[in-house]
Amino acid sequence: MKAYPVAPPWPGIKLELMEDTHFDPQLPAVELRRELGERMAAAAFNRYPDPSAPALKDMMRKTLGIDAKYEIILGSGSDEVITIISQSILAGGGAVVSLEPSFSVFKNAATAVAGRYVGVSLRADFTLDVDALLATIEREQPKLVWIVYPNNPTGNLYPDADIERVIKAAPGLVVIDEAYEAFAGRSWLARLDEFPNLVLMRTLSKIGLAGIRLGYAVGAPDWINEFNKVRGPFNVGVLQQIAAEVMLKHFDTLKHHARQMVEQRDRMFNALQKMPGVTPFPSAANFVLARFPDSAKVFDGLKARGILVRNLSALHPHMANTLRLSAGTPSEVEALLVALDGIL
Ligand code: PMP
C-alpha cells in the first residue's frame, strides 16, 4: 500500500486539494468569530462529546435538506466515513468495486480490512463504460460499490440512467460519494428512497470547512445503524461539532463561495481550451483536470512561480500528462493563467 500523499505546507498559491481559498480566515465577520470563540470556550473539554451530535445534525438537516426519515453518520472527514463503511461492509472479506481513476482512499480502506479491491477503468475520455462495470459486478458480486459523482480527479458526472442500472444490478451496497455536490448542483438525495441499497456520502471540506474535518453519510437507518457499530464511539470531537454547527449558520456564505469557485472553474476551463496543446476536461466540480504536452515541465514551472497544483500523471494510464487545478480565487486563477502562458 501507499499512504495518501499529502504535500507539506505551501507558502505560495495552493491549488492542489480543492480547498475553498475564497474563505479568508481573517474575513468572517467579527460576530461570527466571537460566536465561534465563545461557543468553543464554553465547551465541556473534560467530557467526551455527545456522539449523537443533536445540534449539529439538526443544523445539517435544515441547511443540507436531509429528511428526517434518513439517518446521518458523522466522521472526521469523509475519509473516516470511507474507513467506517469499508470496515462495516467488508469485514470477513468480499469484493469492493470502484471506478478508476478515482479517489484512491477507497482502495486503501478496502485493502486494510482484507477486502478484495477490483478497479474498473473508465474509458480513455473518462466516460463510464457501464457495460464493463455491470460485467464486473456480475462476476465479482461485490458487497460494496463506490461511485464518485462528480468524479475526482476527472470532474465529470456519469449519466443518471447508467448509475441507476448499476444500483439495480449491485447485489450489495452502493455508495455515491457526492463530495463535490455543491459545485455540480446535482444529487441523488431526492432519489435515495427509491433504492434500498443506496447510501450517499458527502463532506463539508469542499465548501470552506476542510480544516474542521467533517464528513457524513446519509441513508436508511438500517444501513447507518450497522456503520455505527464499527465507528469509534466518540469519533467527532466537541470542537469539530461546534465549529461545523456555527459555520453552517452561515451556509449562504459557503454557497456563495461555491458559486464563485464554479465561475473560476469555468474561467480556467475556457482559458485552458485556448492554450496550445492543452486539453481541459469538462468539470462539474471545483477543479479542472487538463492534459499538457509535458505535465512535469508545467508542474515544475508552476512550482517555481510559487503555485502548487496536483500532478496526477502516474495515477492511471489514462492520466498521462495531466494536472489537476483547483478553482482558486480570481487573483489566484489570474496568477495561474499568467504562469501557464509563460511556461507554455
Ligand atoms: N471523496 C472524494 C471524492 C474526495 O475527493 C475527497 C477529498 N479529496 C474525499 C472524499 C475526502 O474528503 P474529506 O475527508 O475532506 O471529507
Q: What is the string of SSEs from the N terminus onward?
A: EHHEHEHEHEHEHEEHHHEEHEEEH
Given helix and strand content, the structural type is alpha/beta
Number of strands: 13
Q: What gyration radius follows from the Cα positions, in whole Å? A: 20 Å
How would you write the strand order of the largest sheet? 2-8-7-6-5-3-4
Please sum up the structure shown.
This protein is of the alpha/beta class. 40% of the residues lie in helices and 16% in strands.
Give the SSE map.
Blueprint: E1 13-14, H1 30-41, H2 54-64, E2 71-75, H3 77-90, E3 95-100, H4 105-112, E4 116-121, H5 130-140, E5 144-148, H6 160-169, E6 173-177, H7 181-184, E7 198-203, E8 215-219, H8 221-228, H9 238-248, H10 251-273, E9 279-280, E10 287-291, H11 295-304, E11 307-308, E12 310-311, E13 322-326, H12 330-343
Parallel strand pairs: 1-11, 3-4, 3-5, 5-6, 6-7
Antiparallel strand pairs: 2-8, 7-8, 9-10, 10-13, 12-13
Bound molecules: 4'-deoxy-4'-aminopyridoxal-5'-phosphate.
Residues 77-79, 103, 148, 152, 177, 179, 203, 205, 210, 215 line the site of 4'-deoxy-4'-aminopyridoxal-5'-phosphate.
